[in-house]
């Protein structure tokens, strides 16, 4: 074989090797692409199935109502997180993107009864309308300004529990201890202060409480009222810290304002009178504390009543009583933390519901003679 033929044979051999190598590479590329396509198809298919499942009811068979609270100012993300935590939906991220995709908005804060068997559309409709899906079995109305013993009577009347059992549970160390664990920033150790009549007096918030079963546990009924107090008090946390005012003192002051106020009264001015008297080391001298000390409900307080020996008698003791004397409402709570700026030291409620504010004892006695004594 000549040298030229040898070189030609070598070139042909190398060319064949390169062609074979190219075919192998193409096969590998095709296999890799096929594997990737299969994997992507699997991922897409799996993702589709997962999202489809997440859009379905969390549990079609579970129709038991769950208490779900949506706080004021909640974002879609926080609402989704709450619903997932309560097992009303399967995946908070899917819910969030579904809401955005559907361009849903206008969710309302509130307490809802939702079930794991509900469709997403029904959940969204409920949260937008503020409707509670489950029918209310009974309600317990708790008016502003009533006392713990009266609240016990209200609970007994509407729930069927014996009044004595309700009252005993309200004062039970076990129940109170549970509330302290669940709501430590609101139900503090100060409820067991010296001379306290009822530890949770003033902590059962005035509202109407709906229930969705014939006989809910008594603790659940009572806790709803404590929980509501916790929710209402929390927004004042920064102001309370700034004023160095414990929650217990806050509720105590608010309860005095609640008991002294009439429908047309300016609660913030009443609040200013109490704070002005405290700053001047004057006794508050508010009649509702005397009645609380007596454990009676009277239309009029007599001079002999003012002599009752009790830490709640603000004619005898300086400053606030040991604890609340009733359950204050939202207006009284606001007044307790934001009193008006006045120089008033006295106020007088007339029979017509008007409240007359004065700066001196002479002015107060004159108003009293005009509107009370001479009538």
UniProtKB/TrEMBL annotation:
Signal peptide: none annotated. GO terms for molecular function: lytic endotransglycosylase activity. Pfam families: YceG. It is an enzyme of class 4 (lyase). It catalyses: a peptidoglycan chain = a peptidoglycan chain with N-acetyl-1,6-anhydromuramyl-[peptide] at the reducing end + a peptidoglycan chain with N-acetylglucosamine at the non-reducing end. Keywords: Cell membrane, Cell wall biogenesis/degradation, Lyase, Membrane, Transmembrane, Transmembrane helix. One of its GO terms (cellular component) is plasma membrane. It is a single-pass membrane protein. It is found in: Cell membrane. The keyword Lyase applies. One of its GO terms (biological process) is cell wall organization. The record marks 260 as: Important for catalytic activity. The chain crosses the membrane at residues 28-51. Its main location: membrane. InterPro entries: MLTG-like. Its EC number is 4.2.2.29. Belongs to the transglycosylase MltG family. NCBIfam families: endolytic transglycosylase MltG. Functions as a peptidoglycan terminase that cleaves nascent peptidoglycan strands endolytically to terminate their elongation. This is Endolytic murein transglycosylase. It comes from Metabacillus indicus (Bacillus indicus).
């Amino acid at each position: 074989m000549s040298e030229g033929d040898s070189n030609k044979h070598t070139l042909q051999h190398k060319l064949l090797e390169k062609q074979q190598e190219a075919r192998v590479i193409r096969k590998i590329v095709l296999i890799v692409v096929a594997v990737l396509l299969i994997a992507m198809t699997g991922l897409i298919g799996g993702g589709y199935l997962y999202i489809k499942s997440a859009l379905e009811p969390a549990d079609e068979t579970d129709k038991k109502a769950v208490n779900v609270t949506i706080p004021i100012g909640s974002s879609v993300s926080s609402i989704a997180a709450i619903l997932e935590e309560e097992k009303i939906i399967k995946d908070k991220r899917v819910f969030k993107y579904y809401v955005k995709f559907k361009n849903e908005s206008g969710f309302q804060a509130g307490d809802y009864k939702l079930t794991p068997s509900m469709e997403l559309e029904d959940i969204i409709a409920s949260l937008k309308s503020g409707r509670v899906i489950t029918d209310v079995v009974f309600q317990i109305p708790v008016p502003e300004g009533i006392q713990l013993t009266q609240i016990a009577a209200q609970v007994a009347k509407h729930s069927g529990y014996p009044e004595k059992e309700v009252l005993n549970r309200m004062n039970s160390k076990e129940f109170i201890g549970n509330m302290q664990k669940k709501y430590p920033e609101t139900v503090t150790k100060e409820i067991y202060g010296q001379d306290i009549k009822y530890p949770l007096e003033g902590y059962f918030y005035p509202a109407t409480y709906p229930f969705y079963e014939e006989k809910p546990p008594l603790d659940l009924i009572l806790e709803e009222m404590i929980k509501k107090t916790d929710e209402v008090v929390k927004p004042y946390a920064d102001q309370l810290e700034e004023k160095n005012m414990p929650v217990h003192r806050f509720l105590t002051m608010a309860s005095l304002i609640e008991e002294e106020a009439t429908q047309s009264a300016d609660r913030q001015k009443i609040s200013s009178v109490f704070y002005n008297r405290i700053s001047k080391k004057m006794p508050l001298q508010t009649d509702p504390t005397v009645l609380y000390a007596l454990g009676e409900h009277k239309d009029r307080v007599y001079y002999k009543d003012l002599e009752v020996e009790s830490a709640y008698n603000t004619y005898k003791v300086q400053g606030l009583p040991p604890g609340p004397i009733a359950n204050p409402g939202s207006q009284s709570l606001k007044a307790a933390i934001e009193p008006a700026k006045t120089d008033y030291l006295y106020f007088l409620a007339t029979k017509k519901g008007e409240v007359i504010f004065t700066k001196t004892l002479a002015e107060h006695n004159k108003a009293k003679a005009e509107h009370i004594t001479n009538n």
